TrEMBL record:
It catalyses: gamma-L-glutamyl-L-cysteine + glycine + ATP = glutathione + ADP + phosphate + H(+). It holds the Pfam family GSH_synth_ATP. Mg(2+) binds at E413. Pathway: Sulfur metabolism; glutathione biosynthesis; glutathione from L-cysteine and L-glutamate: step 2/2. It is an enzyme of class 6 (ligase). This is Glutathione synthetase. Binds 1 Mg(2+) ion per subunit. Residues 251-350 form the Glutathione synthase substrate-binding domain. One of its GO terms (molecular function) is magnesium ion binding. Keywords: ATP-binding, Glutathione biosynthesis, Ligase, Magnesium, Metal-binding, Nucleotide-binding. It comes from the Eukaryota.
Length: 518
């Protein structure tokens, strides 16, 4: 049973009357009137939009622990796409291969990676445990040098004389929401195409600055996530199969968490792997891997009598995924095996906030990329290390005096862990110098605001919003040969003004798509 709230006939009638009244009696709308008119137009098409979203797979598991496990609701989405200058969008797309190259280079420079995280590991037990696994597998000898990365680099459009995208973070494990983003683009093509004319069309065009005569759908860049990500997983399976004697039809293992709320996002990948690439998928939790998987004397991984070619982590990115030693034993087994990891523990460690900050130091990116480093440096926000060995006193003092200009970040993924505003100063004063090692300080990026129509569980709100723009990339290499390196689609997460965190799964944001402007 799907939990769905529909727009009532009375609401639709009232919205139609409001929209007609707004359009009949004015030439120019004030800002409040524009917002009301957009809301009236959105209310008219709410039911069509929500139905289209649900019937095209934009579904999310209910959070209510008492609900039926099969119950789902509409994925939180924006009804209309979010504007971004086309040049800024294309600049971010062009950086994807460089992020791929950087992640792989850092992951293979194990000495630099381990040294960078040593202090953090003492203050953050989770990072420390991952680092311990990395050290163990390298001491034993790496069984599988082939690594698959499905990364996502997230940016905000920093406002100023020349707006430019600054990187928020680089995700190297469980870079999710790609399939939702693929279907939101389809939703926006439907809305902008189906409702271009009439009163609703005029309200939508007014929202984007009129654009008379333009086909609005042409401003939506095509999203390739549901093609590129399964293709990368399939390619990894094929390379493993080619290099492994006797491997006939190995599977791809999806390591998932138990709650499964984001089931649609990984199920679409599973279906594409089978329907397009004829590759089978097993979905298991870390606990199930510990109970059912084994490794033979050659290091090949077996699960329920199936050989595993690729271990794709959709869980395992935070301490909550390892409630006991059972889950940690599963992670170690996967890392020690000959299966291709997506990501390997080293790729995951490259995504740590401390590594992001360390790479911003003079000469760090240049160590790995050479002349190409300047292109990446152009999107770096201000980043500062904390704790012993860091010259942090001046920046800590400034952050305590003017906390609104900073974000305090721990080594965590998944949303809901950062500190903003006055909480930055409070937390910094609470932490000992040793405890500060588990955090970095980052410049607060200040994006411009836009009106956005946000829908969650069938209800809509028109609000002033900002967005994060994520760009996926895929990479498959063994340190000598790059079998694959490509841009793999995009994600827009939109949140209301005043909401600091940006995770959709964590309940802070909705999924949108980019609307390219000149």
């Amino acid at each position: 049973m799907w939990a769905l709230r529909r727009a009532s006939p009375a609401l639709v009638t009232a919205a139609a009357a409001k929209l007609h009244s707004d359009r009949r009696g004015r030439r120019e709308l004030s800002a409040p009137s524009r917002c009301e008119s957009l809301q009236a137009a959105a209310q008219l098409i709410l039911r069509d939009s929500v139905q289209y979203a649900e019937l095209n797979g934009l579904l999310y598991g209910l959070k209510d622990p008492g609900a039926d496990q099969s119950a789902a609701t509409q994925t939180p989405v924006a009804m209309l796409p979010f504007c971004i200058p086309e040049k800024a969008f294309q600049d971010c797309v062009a950086l994807s291969p460089l992020w791929n190259k950087l992640v792989d280079a850092v992951a293979r420079d194990v000495k630099w990676l381990h040294a960078t995280l040593e202090t953090v590991a003492k203050a953050d037990p989770f990072t420390g445990r991952l680092l311990k696994i990395s050290k163990q597998i390298h001491e034993e000898g790496l069984r599988q040098p082939l690594m698959l990365g499905i990364h996502r680099s997230d940016y905000m459009l920093h406002s100023g004389a020349e707006p430019r995208c600054l990187q928020v973070e680089l995700n190297t494990i469980a870079s999710s929401m790609g399939c939702h983003a693929f279907h939101v683009e389809k939703l926006h093509r439907f809305v902008l195409g189906r409702f271009q004319e009439g009163a609703v069309g005029r309200a939508i065009r007014g929202h984007y600055g009129d654009l008379k005569g333009d086909d609005l759908t042409k401003r939506l860049p095509r999203n390739v996530t549901l093609e590129a990500i399964p293709a990368a997983l399939s390619r990894a399976q094929a390379v493993y199969k080619a290099q492994t004697k006797g491997a006939k039809d190995p599977v791809v293992l999806f390591v998932v968490n138990d709650d499964g709320r984001n089931f649609a996002d990984w199920c679409f990948l599973e279906y594409a792997l089978w329907e397009v690439h004829n590759v089978r998928v097993l979905k298991k939790s870390l606990k199930e891997v510990a109970e059912k998987a084994s490794m033979d004397k050659e290091g090949r991984l077996w699960l329920e009598e199936e050989e595993v070619a690729v271990s794709y982590f959709r869980a395992g990115y935070g301490p909550e995924d390892y409630p006991s030693e059972v889950e940690w034993s599963a992670r170690l087994l996967l890392e020690r095996s000959a299966a291709v990891k997506c990501p390997s523990v080293d790729y995951q460690l490259v995504g740590a906030k401390k590594v992001q900050q360390a790479l911003a130091r003079p000469g760090a990116v240049e160590r790995f990329l050479g002349p190409d480093s300047a292109k990446l440096r152009g999107c770096f926000a201000g980043l500062w290390g904390l704790g012993p060995g860091e010259d942090d006193q001046a920046i800590v003092k400034l952050a305590c005096e003017k906390p609104e200009g900073f974000v305090l970040k721990p080594q965590r993924e998944g949303g809901g862990h950062n500190f903003y505003g006055k909480d930055v100063a409070v937390k910094l004063k609470e932490l000992s110098p040793q405890e500060r090692s588990a955090y970095i300080l980052m410049q607060r990026i200040l994006p411009g605001l836009q009106e956005s129509v946000m829908t969650r569980q069938g209800q809509l709100k028109v609000m002033e919003c900002l967005s994060e723009f994520g760009f996926y990339s895929v990479y498959l290499g063994d340190g000598r040969t790059a079998h694959l390196s490509a841009h793999a689609g995009h994600l827009v997460r939109t949140k209301a003004q005043g909401v600091d965190e940006g995770g959709v799964a964590a309940g802070y944001a909705v999924i949108s798509s980019p609307f390219l402007t000149s």
